[in-house]
Amino acid sequence: MVVEVVLEENLAGKEHLAAIAAVLVLCAPTAVRQRRSRARGGSTSGAPPIQS
After folding, report:
1. Rounded to whole angstroms, how far apart are CA atoms 17 and 15?
2. How far apart are CA 4 and CA 14, in angstroms?
């Protein structure tokens, strides 16, 4: 789609690329937060630890 937008003036293609970029920007903080918690040894499932 990027190649098509570069080669031809395609407004619909530009709108699709803008939407994809917006979703990536909105999802980035959550992904970074999850990676940091896993790196610190957090639970991978998000569930509290089991106490026996």
Report:
1. 5
2. 9
pLDDT for the residue 38? 75
How would DSSP label each residue in 1-52? -HHHHHHS--HHHHHHHHHHHHHHHHHHHHHHHHHHHHHTT--SSSSPPP--
Q: What is the pLDDT of residues 4-45, one digit of tens each?
A: 888 998 899 999 999 999 999 999 999 898 888 777 765 566
Which of 8, 29, 5 has its CA nearest to residue 16?
A: 5
9: left (phi over 0), alpha (psi -120 to 50) or beta: beta
